[in-house]
Structure formats: C-alpha cells, structure tokens
Design goal:
The structure holds two protein chains of two kinds.
Chain A: H1 2-8, H2 16-58, E1 60-63, E2 66-70, H3 74-82, H4 84-98, H5 100-114, H6 121-129, H7 136-146, H8 153-160, H9 177-202, H10 206-214, H11 219-230, H12 232-248, H13 250-256, H14 268-278, H15 282-306
Antiparallel strand pairs in A: 1-2
Helix pairs in contact in A: 1-2, 2-15, 4-12, 4-14, 5-9, 6-9, 7-13, 9-12, 12-15, 14-15
Chain B: H1 2-34, H2 55-63, H3 66-96, H4 102-113, H5 121-130, H6 137-141, H7 148-160, H8 163-171, H9 176-187, H10 189-205, H11 208-213, H12 222-233, H13 238-257, H14 259-271
Helix pairs in contact in B: 1-13, 2-13, 3-7, 3-10, 7-10, 7-14, 8-9, 10-14, 12-13
Classes of the chains: A mainly alpha, B mainly alpha.
C-alpha cells in the first residue's frame, strides 16, 4: 500500500508526455499492488500475525475467558522445571529428526539405482513416490493395521518365519512405539527425498564423471569426490524437510498412537496440540511453540552452515 | 565391460524389486482387508482375500455421514484450488514486474516459507475465531488460499514467456488484462496444472486445521470423518479400511495422472528454496 502512497506524493510532472507516462506508471503500480494483495492478506493473517501473536502470548497468562496478564518467563519456567512431558516430547522430537538421515541415505541409494537408463526406472520411481501424496490420516490407519498383533502382516511374517514366538504389540510397547511410528513416517516421505535427490543428481554435469574416469578414479572415489559434494544443496534441502517433518508428522502420530503409550511417542507438536486444544492452555502452548520454532531455526541454520553456508540462497536479482 | 555389468544389473533390479515390494505391501494389505468378509482378526490371516466383495464400501455410507464429509471435502478443496490458481497467478505476475518494494515482498514471501503452518496454529485459530469463521467452509480454506511455492511456479512460467511476444501484444494495443488472459496464461498451462494438483492434494489431505476449527460434525471433512470412525469403531471392522481406501483413491488417481506436473511443482519449490 505504501507503494502507491509514495507515488501519489510525487510532484506533478510538467510536460504532457511525462505526465501520461506518470499516470501509466501509476496505474501499473496500482495493478501490482492489487495483484499482490490477496496473497499478502493470506500470509500476513496466517503467518506473520500468528508468529508475533504467538510470541506475545507465550509471555502472558491468558485464557479465552480471562483478560491477558503479563507474566514474563513464567510459562517457560514451568516448562523447564515442572513439565516432564515437555522433556519427553523434546527428546522424542530430536530422535524423530535424527532418524531422517537414515531415510535420506536410503533415498540416496534408491535415487542412484533409478538414475540412469535402467529399464523400468520410471516404474520404480513411481512406486517409491506413490506413498508421498497420500492422506496421512489414512496412512496412519494402514500402518496401525500393518502393526496389529493379530491381523497385521508384520507380526504374521515374523511369527511364521519363527523370528518371534509371540506377537509384538508394536504400537502398545514402550520401546517399539517410537521406532514403529518413525518407520511409517519414513515409508511415506522417502519418495519425496528420492525426487529431490534425483533432481540434484541430474543437474551434475556428466563431463565431471568422464574426466574422473579418464584420470582412472574408481567408482567410490567418483561418488565421494563428485556426487556427494555436488549434491550438497539437495541434501541440505532433504535435511530441512526432515526437520520440518517433526512438525508435520502430527497427523500420523495422532492417528497411530496419539502420543502413547504413556508419552512414548509424544512429539512437541502433539504436546502443543493437547495443551492448547484439549486443556485450553493457549498461553502455555504458545510458549511450547516458541521453543519448537527456535529449535527448528537453530537446526536449519546449523544444517546450512554444514552445507557450506549458501545452500539457502535463493534467486537473487 | 558389458559382460561384467550384467550380474550387476540383475542385482540392481533385485534391490529395486525388494524396495518396491516393501513400498507396495501396505497398499495390498489394506485393500485386501477392505474387500474381505472374513473376521479380520482371524489368525493366521489369509494372504489372499477369500470371497472378495464390496460390502464394506457400502457399509461406509451407512455407518457414518460419508456423503456429508465428501461434500465438505470437495467444497473446501474447490475453494482452495480456485484461490490458489487465481491468487498465485496474480502474485506471480506482479513479481515479474519491477516496482519499489519488490525485494521486501520477495523477502517476506521467502521468510513465510520458513514458517511451518503447524507453528502458528494457536494464533491462527484465534484469528479465525475473531473473524467468525470457525465451522465455515471459508475458514477451512482460508489459510490454504495461496501458497508461496506455487507463486514461484507461476513467476517462473511467466518469465519464460518471450519478452518479444508480450511487446508485440502491447503494440497491437492489448491492455494489461488481455495480455495476461490471451498471452501469458495460455502459455503457462503446465504451471496452472501444477497449482491445481498441489493445492488439491494439500487441501484434500489436510487434517490438523479442520481438526482445530470444526467442532460441528456437519462441517467436518473426510480426514476428520476417518479419524472419528477410528475412535468410534477402533480397528475392528473392514469398513474402516474400505473408508481409508476410498479417501486415498482421488489423490492416487490425481498423482498417477499428473505425476510430471506434481514433481515439477515440488522440485521447483526445492530449487527455489
């Protein structure tokens, strides 16, 4: 809006030609502003304002029926000293993020296997990618059923091959629950990592490999000296996606275990949801959100450093 | 060289077949359960469906208000898709122009990209409540009306249109709107397709936002219906799996029909940050 304001304040131009140019310019700016407006409204209302409001809320004692009162760091102090679930959820979230490199490594393996003139490569690619665009709620239901003690095919396979005597209650067992949920999450997202890495692989100039081959570099050296360094931006992106998934896996966790058994699969995002929308403690949940968002930023910046510092660079003009 | 490569090639195929098997088993298992009439807790479970039938799919329509959920999901997705195509195209076009504050707008968009929606749920809920949009279609679709990744898809498509073509149209006396409608949009069909597909899949699958703002069962969408069904019935009936299969069909179908556009959208987001 300020764009138009500054233009209108410009002194009137003398010559008729210049003034025609000015009105035309004026109209164009108006057009640009009008075109940007709807998207800006959406992002301001649902990204910028919430981010600020969330921070303010985290320093207040507030509930929908009471006026807000500034309480400084009390919400954070409570989290630090009294909320055991917070620490469990934080640990689980970090484990969840730490597991993403496994998925990325698997995706890199698959990407290398399907990247070439392999017959049927596109079929394999489609199959691996197929689980990504699916509704996470339905995926959660499918995996609950896969892990089921009686009807699940995993227990059936383990029992009929004699690996275990009695069925494992994957989602009811305190030790198995988190790895089981993480495996389901990897199953859904591995195709996305593969696509990102494939795009990265295809942008590596082939003559690098030819030159290395002429120099007699063996396959492993070509992989570690050319492929991996050239893939850095793609790998960085995968890691960021992995970090973000600790947020967006809410659906899957909610359906598969709802944080249980006990709090064995509680993530920060499920803890935030329960605090805000089950216990109606919006203020405290806002503080939890600030912590998770800070964690996300720190990890992303660290990953960016590790990737060489400019991986986040986007279009410059 | 070729002789040495043959067993290696077989090994590659073998590995990929095993991976494909792992990826496909869950699909098979849920479809098998959905079309089987037997007691689903029977042990050992049969690997093939005995007497396959579709009763479970019919059951879904009677056990829960399936048509209502379906209608809600379709309406919300339609609003989100239309919003995305129109608003993203507008914003994408605006970003191809030079104007004061362009850098600031770009910086704003890119920083919004770093804010996951889940990190804003509490104030987003409060904002929506203040606007009186809880339990409404518009409230459900509002946060999804425009997507940054898709704005950049449009921007890239518009920038790829040759400048000379636009200049020629301008010399012919076409106004700004006509240039967009007659020249730019027809040349950006892949970008439109990408927008439609991504926004449809995102909105169709969305669970957290409807969970927060729709308490009224009449306004709930399919994912919520599925979650409710699960909490009423536990995993005890084949109808649950029939329901799951039904909600998956549209996204699988859209994905298989337009895989190329889908991938292009995601990877353009990838390269553009």
């Amino acid at each position: 809006m300020s764009v138009i304001g500054t233009q209108a304040a410009a002194p009137p131009l003398a010559s008729p030609r210049a003034s025609r140019w000015a009105t035309q310019r004026h109209r164009q700016l108006l057009l640009v502003a009008c075109f940007l407006l709807p998207s800006l409204v959406v992002f301001v209302l649902y990204r910028i304002v919430p981010l600020g409001w969330n921070v303010v809320l985290s320093f207040e004692a507030w509930s929908p029926l009471k006026p807000a009162r500034w309480i400084g760091l009390a919400n954070y102090a409570e989290m630090w000293s009294y909320d055991d679930v917070f620490w469990t959820a934080l640990t689980n979230t970090l484990i969840f993020i730490a597991a993403s490199p496994i998925a990325i490594a698997a995706a890199l393996g698959i990407a290398l296997l399907v990247n070439s003139d392999l017959k049927g490569a596109s079929v394999y690619r489609t199959i691996v990618f197929l689980s990504y665009p699916l509704m996470a709620v339905a995926v959660g239901i499918i995996w609950r059923w896969m892990y089921d003690e009686r009807g699940g095919i995993i227990n059936y396979a383990l029992r009929s091959t004699g690996l275990v005597d009695r069925p494992i209650g994957f989602l009811q067992d305190f030790d198995w629950a988190l790895p089981s949920v993480i495996f389901a999450e990897i199953w859904q997202v591995v195709g996305f990592y593969m696509i990102i890495l494939l795009t990265g692989l295809q942008s590596i100039p082939q003559n690098l490999y030819e030159a290395a081959r002429i120099d007699g570099a063996p396959a492993w050296a070509r992989f570690f000296r050319i492929t991996l360094p050239m893939l850095r931006p793609s790998l960085f992106l995968c890691i960021v996606v992995g970090i973000l998934n600790s947020f967006s896996s809410f659906d899957l966790v909610y359906i598969m275990t709802n944080g249980g058994p006990g709090h064995a699969t509680e993530l920060l995002i499920t803890h935030i949801y329960k605090s805000a929308f089950v216990q109606t403690r919006f203020d405290y949940a806002a503080a939890l959100t600030v912590v998770q968002f800070a964690l996300l930023l720190v990890l992303t910046i660290a990953a960016n450093r590790a990737a060489g510092g400019n991986a986040g660079a986007v279009e410059r003009d | 060289m070729a002789r040495r490569a043959r067993p290696l090639l077989a090994l590659r195929h073998l590995t990929l077949v095993v991976i494909a098997f792992v990826m496909l088993v869950p699909f098979y298992w849920v479809v098998k359960t959905a079309i089987t009439n037997e007691n689903i807790y029977e042990y050992p479970p049969s690997l093939l469906p005995k007497q396959p039938h579709l009763f479970n799919f019919v059951d879904v329509w009677y056990l829960i208000p399936f048509p209502r959920y379906l209608l809600n999901s379709i309406v919300v997705s339609a609003i989100a898709v239309i919003g995305n195509v129109v608003f993203n195209a507008m914003a994408g076009y605006a970003l191809t122009r030079k104007f004061p504050g362009r850098r600031a707008v770009l910086a704003l968009f890119l920083s919004c990209m770093l804010i996951p929606f889940q990190a804003t749920i509490i104030p987003a809920y409060l904002v929506t409540a203040r606007m009186g949009l809880l339990n409404t279609y518009f409230g459900l679709a509002f946060p999804m009306l425009s997507t940054i990744v898709c704005i950049f898809v449009f921007k890239a498509a518009f920038e790829a249109v040759p400048k000379s073509l636009i200049d020629a149209a301008r010399i012919d006396g076409l106004g700004e709107w006509r240039i967009i409608a007659r020249v730019l949009l027809p040349l950006s069909k892949p970008a439109i397709a990408t927008n439609v597909i991504l926004s449809f899949i995102w909105s169709w699958n969305n669970f957290l936002w409807p969970l927060l703002i729709t308490r009224d069962p009449q306004m709930q969408t399919l994912p919520l219906g599925l979650a409710r069904f699960l909490s009423y019935m536990e995993d005890t009936t084949g109808a649950l799996y029939a329901f799951a299969v039904m909600v998956l069909i549209p996204s699988v179908f859209v994905f298989l029909m337009a895989q190329k556009e889908f991938v292009r959208g995601l990877t353009s987001g990838a390269t553009k940050g």
